[in-house]
Specification:
Chains A, B: It is an enzyme of class 1 (oxidoreductase). Two copies of one chain form a homodimer. Chain A is of the alpha/beta class. Chain A folds into three domains: 151 residues, Rossmann fold; 164 residues, Dihydrodipicolinate Reductase, domain 2 (2-Layer Sandwich), CATH 3.30.360; 86 residues, 2-Layer Sandwich (Alpha-Beta Plaits), CATH 3.30.70.260. Chain A is 37% helix and 27% strand. The first copy, chain A, is built from 14 helices and 17 strands. In chain A, the strands form two sheets. In chain A, strands 7, 8, 9, 10, 11, 12, 13, 14, 15, 16 and 17 form an eleven-stranded mixed sheet that branches. The first copy, chain A, has a six-stranded parallel sheet with strand order 3-2-1-4-5-6, with helices on both faces. At the A-B interface, helix 2, helix 6, strand 12 and helix 12 of A face helix 2, helix 6, strand 12 and helix 12 of B.
């Protein structure tokens, strides 16, 4: 046991920061045993020391001078979120050789490689397990447990808000707007839900996961991102009729030409372990060459769960510091291009509204055949004349076999050009 | 990049060892990049160099002289299993400061603490993630990711053979003997299935998991163990009628007085994530104070999956050795007693055969009341006279509220003493 304490500076005291302060202060004795030296919280940088908080640390710990706090610390825990001032502060710490624990997915997805280089240059440790999937240990298994395996594919439900909304749409038959309003009422969605429902939050996490899974540098810009705002109650009903649920999946996939990273709504068969991930839970499914199929499941957000992940990083790095060990950098050695969605091969389901005319199906089938997109199933439902006027209409649902994205896009363009096709109401990928 | 290779000695070339040899030889270039120096397989200690193997390494690598091989290596990978000569060889390596990766659950569950002390004394690393749940990364998350949290309870399906048998009993209605025979025919159970069906294999894993989860030393002797040989088709049918499945669970639980570690058949409600773990898959469910509920799921055995876990340990420790870092010992600092099953509080389901007489239920209820075991539900089914002779019989199924094990045992003893009770056909715990 070493008596020299490690000084910890906490930046931010929101939902997660408050819980980290609580654990550091209330579990001090136990943490000392686990680390081999005391972990001393020397201050909490906040904008307003008087603001109310989930957990109130002794008033003397709060400060508005983040830089002075950083300079006095051995380890900096950054939980403010956003790009600035988090970026400048983390760089200040790393350049001075101070270890950093961060849960800032937006920053890490954009500048993770630059931050890692700053850490490597000074021998500091940069840890960020809390940035992806809250408390679910996913980054450490990818980096360490699967370090001798070949990851082929990662499929993740990495955003609790969208999973809650989609789950509600499946359970109640509600349309997107109503399910979103309910999620907002219950505190599962923010007043401005854009980052969640447009998939940006999941996309940031996907970039971080892909970097660790494939040992290469990827950023948010490498991620193709589609949100769930276009998903209708009719799409959900059609998915259920196919024995599937619609999930917003983050997919990181090793292809021959490189790595595809994408976030999009996906039909997942009911038997797939990801189909039963309910409410605001997250889950990450990993396919690897030797380990086969692994799944990690748990709360993807929340103050205490995310604080648990932050503390795991903090205790692990503190233990190593006490033992006199060097930082263990991430090992991004591979030069792998991110490939665009156009080369990705998936099955698709499409909904079309067509005129009830002779030869419509034959004309459509011709378009699919021209583009080499093979049809697995085609269902049609006839409706009477719409609102009592005009011609009768037909709804068609097509499920394709696996086809390259650009082939499917070309097919859709051509279908739109057919006189008998009034509208293409949905195009959703299917996970086989 | 360091050019000095790390020499790896492989002890054993069975199902897992063959796959480790394959990965070391076929992925040599990729592994060099990941580690920062070459990992060189210098030899494979076997009993018979001529024996056929799943993967044939160059003949020159096989040797019968394990000691000479150990002495020439930097890292020893022990995959022979069993207590001796594995124990003596691991100690030889650790005492000479050589790092050891092992997947030997039987040995680690018995002598893990002694081996760890040998490693600590010489500054060697002892890693054994492959010993529990095959490829599923569970030990590393417990040790590192949850290092700042308080684990309260771990529930695991940690034996694929018994899960396969129980799953078959649920799916086909088969009795235990038939399901076991089918598992043996398909290669999921060994000719002598004792270690699996009596729960010994799961018990060894539970001891290792409990030690890491609660930061204290536990051995196989601390585990209360009941197997599945007594589970009947009638028990399975009764469980299904209750909306449950029967699983062989390893339970590691923090109680006020200490830690309870046990393996026993358990009724798990259909909605519980562990209920849907099918066939030979494993899963580990962790409840912790801050992270909440986490689940880890994957293949619990098999050559390639277990080799993936071995390689994860090997690459992680090799990376640290290349960086010049010290070994990171496990941190068993807590002095926690293992408590016997008699203090554990659970719900139970019981099956009884009773005579169809007036007052039988009242007499039984009186016994439960005397022992303070509260009855949640009681169902009775009347049968005609057994084999056309004697009195008509009644089957009674009782589900209790939570009660201490010793209270339930006392209740059972008293019930056996009742003249109207012919037999107690089953007593199974229920996971709420």
């Amino acid at each position: 046991m070493n008596d020299t304490p490690l000084s910890v500076a906490l930046l931010g005291s929101g939902t997660v920061g408050s819980q980290v302060a609580r654990i550091l202060l209330e579990d001090a004795e136990e943490l000392t045993q686990r680390v081999g030296a005391p972990l001393r919280l020397i201050g909490i940088a906040v904008r307003d020391p008087q603001a109310p908080r989930d957990y109130a640390a002794p008033a003397g710990l709060y400060t508005t001078d983040a830089d002075a706090l950083i300079d006095a610390a051995d380890v900096v825990v950054e939980l403010t979120g956003g790009i600035e001032p988090a970026r400048t502060r983390i760089l200040r710490a790393l350049r001075a050789g101070k270890h950093v624990v961060s849960g800032n997915k937006a920053l890490l997805a954009r500048e993770g490689a630059a931050l890692q280089r700053a850490a490597d240059a000074s021998g500091a440790q940069l840890s960020y397990d809390a940035a992806v999937a809250g408390a679910i240990p996913i980054l450490r298994p990818l980096r360490d447990s699967l370090a001798g395996d070949q990851v082929e594919r990662v499929l993740g439900i990495m955003n609790g808000t969208t999973n809650f909304i989609l789950d509600a749409m499946h359970t109640t038959g509600a349309d997107f707007d109503d399910a979103l309003a309910e999620a907002q009422r219950l505190g599962y969605a923010e007043a401005d839900p854009t980052a969640d429902v447009e998939g940006h939050d999941a996309a940031a996490k996907a970039a971080i996961v892909a970097s660790l899974a494939f040992h290469a540098e990827f950023t948010l810009e490498d991620v193709h991102c589609e949100g769930i705002t276009g998903i209708t109650a009719a799409d959900v009903a059609a998915a259920q009729a196919e024995g599937c649920v619609i999930k917003l999946l983050a997919v990181c996939e090793r292809l021959e030409e490189g790595v595809s990273i994408r976030v999009h709504p996906t039909l997942v068969p009911n038997e797939h372990p990801l189909a039963s991930v309910r409410g605001a839970f997250n889950a990450v499914f990993v396919h690897s060459r030797d380990a086969g199929q692994l799944m990690f499941y748990g709360p993807g957000a929340g103050g205490a769960p995310t604080a648990s992940a932050v503390m795991g990083d903090l205790v692990s790095l503190a233990r190593r510091v006490v033992l006199g060990g060097p930082a263990v950098p991430d090992f991004s050695y591979a030069q792998l291009p991110a490939v665009g969605p156009e080369d990705v091969v998936s099955s698709y389901t499409m909904g079309l509204q067509v005129k009830d005319r002779l030869g419509v199906l034959a004309g459509m089938a011709q378009v699919f055949a021209e583009e080499g997109v093979s049809i697995r199933t085609m269902h049609q439902t006839k409706h009477g004349p719409h609102r009592g006027a005009g011609q009768p209409e037909t709804t068609i649902r097509v499920v394709t076999h696996r086809a390259a994205d650009r082939r499917v896009r070309a097919t859709i363009e051509k279908l739109r050009g057919l006189d008998a096709v009034d509208a293409i109401t949905s195009v959703i990928r299917v996970e086989d």
